[in-house]
Input
Amino acid sequence: MRSIFTTLAISLAVGLLAFGAVFLWQKNRIDEHHDHLSAFDWFCEEFDIDDAQRERIEALHIAYFPECEDHCIHYADTKQTLAEITADPDLDAHPEHVEAAEELARLKKEADKKFIDFIYSVAAEMDPKSSERYLHRMKGWLEKTTEIAAE
Output
């Protein structure tokens, strides 16, 4: 009876070691494959983007980035202002506190809406099968569409 448990324990240990070794080996191979790719190159490879689609999608990215960057800066500034107001107990009921909180919520909603519009713009440039896969991958963001429309 004791040898059965010993055999099972050794088998389990060997199995776990083999699994770990294969897992790390495969992960390393996958990582090496993508090391040379930029994020945009990976995107194009992942969703089978041809050269014409790539140009149009890249133009969308280039047009969207400055707007996104400006929005992020405004959002970060508003968040910092809200944090400073929140840190001061005397300002809890102050109109600035309410204004900053409302502005932060408005900026977040606006950013989400613009990003969702951007996602659909990118998807529109893809072939139907790749577009469907891309939209499925972006599902978490797209679910916000209903929340934004409801507000």
